[in-house]
């Protein structure tokens, strides 16, 4: 194949693009112009490996993976691509020749925030690993015009504003105006002979936008294909000719609404018609697209499972079951039974949460209205499930259609070859609780694939100091073979190495100190312990418990300021879903506590509370490398896995956490002496539900009691004692997440952390061991597990035949 590699210098390519793509001369160029030019120049370098990967996959006719996800929380793309291509030094030099600062340029890029939290970020890490491992794959999702909302605080309260990442040219994607599919909604189903024919009442078009996803050193490059909704016909000519321009544009507006905005809820179900339409929109487009690709090379539809593995990332694309069956029966003429078997051999489902409020269930009336043909097929899939239940003789019959709603978890499970959880504990709980009936019917279906994170972004990219130290100490192989970090284990006992390791941490803390001063105008000391809890605000994650502990610590300091306190800065970061009032109230309380603590001269530098607004991926990249302590304190049994916990440990932070999600496996890897575990286990939480009385726990804990009384009497909201009543009322009435029950254990663990941190040498040893033993949490390991156990696919790296 012709070599399209842009072999010229990067500097030349930047200049070229500044002139020819951006239309600027260097003297007139803004930082954004330089960013756009650099992005184009870097993208050019991706094209050849991208074409190569595609051609090799076609030539080999290998099985491909299709990862269907409503969310891809990519963050910034440019710096990551520069790093993966090894162009950092060249880019820095090229820009410096014009007096332009590389860091300023890459930081100018808005985050691609096409996701809410862990689920979407996991999908982004998986894309990276799939490319690094040379596994032929597509990510399929939605090109939302507006990603996750922008958060600010007004008097401590969260205020949301629309996000606008596409305002400037988005230089990473290739628009595929020729690649479109019709997506129908509503209408009628008629039968002709044995075939059903669905005639939708509304049709919109899904148009593809492709982003190349380079692996490490661009040895392989996959595609992220995002769908944007476009009108089938742009203008309704009748009203237009009558002069009713607004009415004429109505179809356009309606169609584009579908991919307009990301629903801002994490781990909660929304149940809105538009959401169902979004789900079907991207799922149907993706399936049509992959079927077209498959049929271009294969005549026999029965071969689909041997060429295609589809992953449903949570239940959001669960309509893939009925939709694939619809395409196989109504379009390609297969029988329902054959179509079901093919679909089921092709589809897999990952469950990401057991929270009941997150389990999607659609009203049968709504499903029938929006997707009438699919509703018929869902009934047939349900019959098939009943048959399997009878065969299995378990007695308990789970139903897909139950009580007037379609249970998407049951649907996804029934249509999948493999169903996986995201940590060992979560997978066990899937078997024991939500999916116990289905597990009894299909005992071989559930398996575990513990989550992971990409070391390219989460060490190499975000922690340049650690990257250099690792390269100098164990070589560069760790970047795509993270378990090589294990070689650091003996160095935990090497005083000189510990000093170097902690010097990197100190630099990262200083970087954060500077960032806080610049963005928030607050001075903090880099010598304090940096204690960080960053994640979506959710009651089960118990930011409230952390806030209450902060207030309690402030009380203790105020009472005895001259004691030997371990200075701390507590960082909070995270957004609450706009309609999740209880979570928003927690944000308000945290900000009020922060204000009171930070302004108290008696407390001084012993304790500070920092809550920077608008937490996102880019902010995580500054915070995580600077952390001493990682807060992973969810109610046991509620956090399916967590992935932030892994990023912190990898970057040498010590965890304080419950035995929840992947914390359990982090403890197993880093060793119980190098983590602070506290609180009830998942079993104990269950057992404690009967007869739980919040007040009894509060009465037993003078420390907690004092804080509650302070909040009640307006200590943190002077002049407005009722401001935080809703938080307290909820806690007292229904402490479902057992903040009160775990509070004392948490408080005690924190005091042990104080002591631990005071012994800097012992702490450094723990920190080194956390990095050394976290290599297993690479998403490369996770993806290898999926490739082997779920998809049955192989890497094409190195296979040059
Ligand atoms: C989530 C879980 O809450 C996280 O524990 C998990 O790490 C993540 C990725 O598997 O998925 N589920 C969800 O709906 N949002 C999440 O972040």
UniProtKB/TrEMBL annotation:
It is found in: Cytoplasm. The modification N6-(pyridoxal phosphate)lysine is found at residue 647. It is an enzyme of class 2 (transferase). It catalyses: [(1->4)-alpha-D-glucosyl](n) + phosphate = [(1->4)-alpha-D-glucosyl](n-1) + alpha-D-glucose 1-phosphate. One of its GO terms (cellular component) is cytoplasm. GO terms for biological process: glycogen catabolic process. One of its GO terms (molecular function) is pyridoxal phosphate binding. It comes from the Bacteria. SUPFAM superfamilies: UDP-Glycosyltransferase/glycogen phosphorylase (SSF53756). Its cofactor is pyridoxal 5'-phosphate. Its EC number is 2.4.1.1. Gene3D superfamilies: Glycogen Phosphorylase B. Its main location: cytoplasm. InterPro entries: Glycg_phsphrylas, Glyco_trans_35, Pyridoxal_P_attach_site. Keywords: Allosteric enzyme, Carbohydrate metabolism, Cytoplasm, Glycosyltransferase, Pyridoxal phosphate, Transferase. NCBIfam families: P_ylase. Belongs to the glycogen phosphorylase family. Allosteric enzyme that catalyzes the rate-limiting step in glycogen catabolism, the phosphorolytic cleavage of glycogen to produce glucose-1-phosphate, and plays a central role in maintaining cellular and organismal glucose homeostasis. Phosphorylase is an important allosteric enzyme in carbohydrate metabolism. Enzymes from different sources differ in their regulatory mechanisms and in their natural substrates. However, all known phosphorylases share catalytic and structural properties. This is Alpha-1,4 glucan phosphorylase. It comes from Litoreibacter roseus. The gene is glgP.
């Amino acid at each position: 194949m012709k070599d399209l590699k842009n072999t010229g210098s990067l500097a030349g390519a930047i200049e070229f693009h500044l002139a020819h793509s951006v239309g600027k001369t260097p003297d007139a160029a803004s930082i954004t112009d330089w960013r756009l030019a650099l992005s184009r120049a870097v993208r050019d370098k991706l094209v050849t490996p991208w074409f190569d990967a595609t051609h090799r996959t076609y030539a080999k006719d290998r099985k491909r993976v299709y990862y269907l996800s409503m969310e891809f929380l990519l963050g910034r793309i440019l710096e990551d691509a520069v790093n993966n291509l090894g162009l950092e030094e060249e880019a820095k030099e090229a820009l410096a020749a014009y007096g332009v600062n590389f860091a300023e340029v890459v930081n100018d890029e808005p985050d691609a925030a096409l996701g809410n939290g862990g689920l979407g970020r996991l999908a982004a890490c998986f894309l990276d690993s799939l490319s690094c491992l040379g596994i032929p794959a597509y990510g399929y999702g939605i090109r939302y015009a507006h990603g996750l909302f922008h958060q600010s605080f007004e008097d401590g309260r969260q205020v949301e504003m629309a996000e606008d990442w596409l305002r400037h040219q988005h230089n990473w994607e290739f628009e595929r105006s020729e690649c479109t599919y019709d997506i129908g909604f509503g209408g009628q189903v008629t039968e002709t002979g044995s075939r059903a024919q669905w005639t939708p009442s509304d049709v919109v078009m899904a148009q593809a936008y492709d982003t190349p996803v380079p692996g490490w050193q661009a040895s392989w490059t996959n595609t992220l294909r995002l769908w944007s909704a476009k009108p089938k016909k742009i203008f309704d000519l009748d009203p237009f000719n009558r002069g009713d321009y607004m009415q004429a544009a109505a179809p356009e507006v309606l169609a584009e609404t579908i991919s307009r905005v990301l629903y801002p809820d994490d781990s909660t179900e929304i149940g809105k018609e538009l959401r169902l339409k979004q789900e079907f929109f991207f799922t149907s487009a993706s399936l049509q697209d992959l079927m077209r690709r498959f049929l271009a090379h294969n005549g026999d539809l029965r071969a689909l499972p041997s060429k295609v593995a589809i992953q449903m990332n949570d239940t959001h694309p669960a309509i893939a079951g009925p939709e694939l069956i619809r395409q196989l029966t109504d379009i390609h003429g297969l029988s329902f039974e054959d179509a079901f078997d093919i679909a089921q051999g092709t589809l897999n489902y990952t469950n990401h949460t057991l929270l009941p409020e997150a389990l999607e269930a659609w009203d049968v009336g709504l499903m029938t209205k929006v997707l009438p043909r699919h509703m018929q097929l869902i009934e047939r899939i349900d019959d098939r499930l009943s048959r399997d239940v009878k065969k299995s003789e378990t007695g308990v019959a789970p139903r897909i259609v139950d009580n007037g709603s379609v249970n998407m978890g049951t649907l996804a499970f029934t249509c999948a070859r493999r169903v996986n959880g995201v940590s060992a504990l979560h997978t066990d709980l899937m078997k024991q609780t939500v999916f116990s009936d289905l597990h009894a019917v299909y005992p071989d279906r559930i398996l575990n694939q513990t989550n992971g994170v990409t070391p390219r972004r989460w060490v190499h990219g975000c922690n340049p100091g650690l990257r250099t130290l690792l390269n100098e100490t164990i070589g560069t192989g760790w970047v795509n073979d993270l378990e090589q970090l294990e070689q650091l284990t003996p160095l935990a006992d090497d005083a000189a190495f510990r000093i170097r390791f902690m010097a990197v941490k100190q630099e990262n803390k200083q970087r954060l100190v500077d960032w806080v001063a610049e963005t928030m105008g607050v001075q903090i000391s880099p010598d304090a312990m940096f204690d960080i809890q960053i994640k979506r605000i959710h009651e089960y994650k118990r930011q409230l418990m952390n806030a209450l502990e902060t207030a309690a610590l402030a009380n203790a300091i105020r009472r005895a300021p001259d004691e030997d306190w371990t200075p701390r800065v507590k960082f909070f970061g995270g957004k609450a879903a706009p309609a999740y009032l209880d979570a928003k109230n927690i944000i308000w309380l945290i900000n009020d506590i922060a204000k009171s603590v930070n302004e108290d001269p008696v407390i001084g530098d012993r304790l500070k509370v920092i809550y920077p607004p608008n937490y996102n991926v880019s902010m995580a990249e500054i915070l995580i490398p600077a952390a001493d302590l990682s807060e992973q304190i969810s109610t046991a049994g509620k956090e399916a896995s967590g992935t932030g916990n892994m990023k912190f440990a990898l970057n040498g932070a010590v965890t304080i956490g419950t035995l929840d999600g992947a914390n359990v496996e982090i403890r197993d890897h880093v060793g119980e002496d190098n983590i602070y575990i506290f609180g009830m286990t998942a079993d104990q939480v269950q057992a404690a539900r009967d007869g739980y009385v919040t007040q009894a726990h509060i009465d037993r804990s003078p420390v907690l009691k004092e804080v509650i009384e302070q909040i009640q009497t307006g200590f943190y909201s002077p002049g407005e004692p009722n401001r935080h009543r809703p938080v307290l009322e909820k806690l007292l009435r229904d402490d479902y997440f057992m903040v009160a029950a775990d509070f004392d254990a948490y408080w005690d663990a924190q005091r042990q952390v104080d002591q631990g941190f005071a012994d800097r040498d012992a702490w450094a040893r723990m920190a080194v061991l956390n990095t050394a033993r976290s290599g297993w949490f690479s998403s490369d390991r996770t993806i290898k597990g999926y490739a082997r156990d779920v998809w049955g696919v192989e890497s094409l790296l190195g296979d040059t035949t």
